[in-house]
Specification:
Largest sheet: 7 strands, parallel
Mean pLDDT: 90
Helix content: 40-55%
Number of helices: 15
Low-confidence stretches: none
Number of strands: 15
Structural class: alpha/beta
Strand order of the largest sheet: 3-2-1-6-7-8-9
Strand content: 15-25%
Radius of gyration: 23 Å
Distance between the termini: 33 Å
Length: about 425
């Protein structure tokens, strides 16, 4: 493939989250092996876009980090239209169904290219949490689904993500396209693994469980803490390390203290250095991830890259492809079930090692492989679009955004475009 692909997302480094990491890895691998990448994303303080080997085009935004944790993009930009036309973009791949997709729907008009949308996470959960109002949240979900319905092709990162879309009202077809992992397959040295935790109370021969991710209750963190209480109550020695930050961190720490887990549970805060995070995966014995919120669980595959097996909720998206006792461990969504599994694994380190090796062999997928598959599909989508195989949109919203797109196109030709 030798095409120019535009990656759009509402977050991008220095903003750090799972989807921002995905957008970056798509752009990195497209630029490296498949043609040319262009990134479109909202303005963000202290950006360092000069570090990237491809253009990162920013459009105006409002600081909404106090409300939703992100810069809110203003999806109208003649400047972006002009720059993408000059880049001769052939496909718009959007990774967020909010401002980025609204902008992509408008850009489709002047650029005359297809729009692909990847649905990464259960955005309805985040919307309900942000608005704290059922009516406002339901209206926001309807807007989101209308955006997604307008795309020429929709991808999901797992079967469960597709089912979530269906439950929210999505009526079209979707294709499962897995995300990759930017950690290389293999373990760090034992010395490096031990060094990452040298200043913490983590005895070498005591079983070590870890969680990596956002510190949010909906990640199943109450289940983990309650399970730790159960394990401690029967006298088992272990350590549980939480790596990450999030809006619920203070409440989670307080709950841990309420359960008197201070000698067993450690909160490190976020670890942004990928090599140090890899060392943590190698230092641990088991990764604990009882989340039914996540639609893919990249952290499970990050752990697998280090031959670290995961405990997952049976039937969750994160558990797709996992067979209990073979390449992972499955539980019901309860503290009791998790506590029993943790107790069992504390007594059988040899089984942990065997299952971890299988996880590396069977669950790991690199970003190179994931983007290779995506680029093969881009070829088909571009050909389908050129041959008129995708339906023309005729809803009121489509007509409105088409008008906005035509206006952006007209303004992009004016000499003062760069200030818009």
């Amino acid at each position: 493939m030798d095409h120019t692909i535009c990656i759009l997302n509402d977050s991008f480094p220095p903003q750090l989250d799972g989807v921002a990491n995905t957008a970056k890895n798509y752009a990195d691998n497209i630029e490296k092996s498949h043609g040319h990448a262009v990134v479109v994303t909202p303005e963000f303080p202290d950006k360092q876009d000069y570090k990237f080997p491809y253009p990162v085009i920013r459009y105006h935004s409002l600081d909404a980090r106090w409300f939703i944790g992100y810069m809110a993009g203003i999806p109208f930009s003649p400047t972006v239209t002009k720059q993408l036309r000059e880049e001769q973009v052939e496909l718009l791949h959007c990774h967020c169904p909010a401002a980025a997709l609204i902008l992509a729907r408008q850009l489709r008009v002047p650029l005359n290219v297809p729009v692909v949308m990847t649905y990464h996470t259960k955005y309805d959960v985040d919307l309900y949490k942000a608005f704290k109002n059922k009516l406002l949240s339901e209206n926001a979900v309807r807007v989101m689904i209308n955006n997604i319905n307008s795309c020429d092709e929709v991808w999901t990162v797992s079967r469960g993500a597709g089912e979530n879309l269906r439950e929210l009202g999505f009526e079209g077809e979707y294709r499962i396209m897995q995300n990759g992992v930017d950690m290389p397959l293999g373990r760090v040295s034992d010395d490096e693994a031990m060094a990452v935790s040298a200043d913490l109370d983590l005895p070498k021969d005591v079983p070590l469980f870890i969680f990596v991710g956002r510190m949010m209750w909906y990640k199943g963190l109450r289940i983990i803490l309650d399970a730790c209480e159960g394990l401690k109550s029967i006298g088992n020695d272990f350590r549980m390390v939480f790596i990450g930050s999030g809006a619920d961190l203070d409440e989670i720490k307080a709950y841990s203290e309420k359960l008197y887990l201070g000698d067993k549970v450690i909160f490190t805060g976020p670890v942004y250095d990928r090599q140090k995070l890899k060392a943590w995966y190698c230092r641990a014995d088991v990764f604990v991830f009882p989340s039914t919120y996540d639609t893919n669980g990249l952290v499970v595959r990050e752990a697998a890259s280090c031959s670290l097996p995961s405990i997952l909720v049976r039937g969750s998206c994160a558990a797709e492809g996992v067979t209990d006792g073979k390449n992972g461990f499955l539980i019901s969504e309860s503290a009791a079930s998790l506590s029993v599994m943790m107790y069992k694994l504390c007594e059988n380190i040899d089984m942990i090692r065997k299952v971890g090796k299988n996880a590396a062999d069977q669950l790991y997928i690199s970003w190179e492989t994931a983007v290779d598959k995506a680029c093969e599909r881009y070829e088909v989508i571009i050909d389908n679009f050129k041959s008129g195989k995708y339906p023309k949109r005729r809803t009121l919203t489509d007509e409105l955004l088409k008008g906005n797109g035509e206006l952006m196109s007209a303004l992009s030709h004016l000499p003062f475009t760069d200030v818009l």
